[in-house]
């Protein structure tokens, strides 16, 4: 499947299905819910202390086409097995909740911030979340301009992962797909990379793990 030319809603749908197919063999259940009449998915992953996993659903449909929610309950870290299928920025930065959004390439950093915050507030209401345990993750192929990153105090903490030193912006990190290392655990994002060879390599990695790109 040539995902490069798909619209954003379909890309997010594919991303959700990738996570679903990857995480199920790791004893993580992922629920993908589609809003009526729209190509919208938001997988919800819920881990419990005994090693089992459950699925929770938001109280209402997501109003806009984005959103993948990774939800881990009553745990203090990812297992080594889970890290093998969790991309950089998530696998190395444990939080109980992640709201993940594939962003339009031409979006401004201000609008990206507002979009992710809107997603997070939706889940605050649906799950009565504590914002201190919630991280928004905006994902793009290309980075924002150096000026905007500097103004908002975002710096790379590893290749392709940007976090802010500003207390206001620490609730959101950005992942730049084209800067991520070509590792097996980054394949869910790398299938959306600018470079055709990287996309193909990521797709092959997923196929080896039994994951096909699908809507």
UniProtKB/TrEMBL annotation:
This is Uncharacterized protein. It comes from the Bacteria. It comes from Candidatus Magnetoglobus multicellularis str. Araruama.
């Amino acid at each position: 499947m040539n995902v490069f030319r798909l619209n954003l809603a379909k890309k997010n749908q594919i991303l959700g299905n990738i996570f679903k197919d990857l995480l199920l063999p790791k004893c993580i259940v992922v629920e993908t819910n589609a809003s009526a009449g729209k190509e919208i998915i938001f997988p919800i992953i819920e881990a419990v202390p005994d090693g089992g996993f459950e699925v929770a659903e938001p109280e209402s449909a997501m109003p806009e086409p984005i959103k993948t929610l990774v939800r881990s309950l009553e745990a203090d870290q990812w297992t080594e097995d889970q890290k093998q299928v969790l991309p950089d920025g998530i696998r190395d930065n444990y939080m109980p909740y992640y709201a993940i959004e594939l962003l339009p390439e031409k979006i401004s950093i201000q609008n990206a911030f507002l979009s992710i915050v809107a997603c997070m507030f939706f889940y605050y209401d649906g799950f009565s979340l504590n914002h201190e345990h919630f991280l928004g993750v905006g994902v793009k192929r290309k980075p924002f301009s150096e000026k905007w990153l500097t103004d908002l105090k975002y710096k790379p903490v590893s290749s392709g992962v940007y976090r802010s030193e500003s207390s206001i912006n620490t609730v959101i990190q950005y992942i730049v797909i084209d800067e991520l290392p070509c590792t097996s655990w980054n394949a869910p994002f790398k299938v959306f990379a600018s470079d055709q060879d990287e996309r193909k390599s990521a797709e092959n990695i997923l196929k080896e793990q039994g994951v096909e790109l699908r809507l």
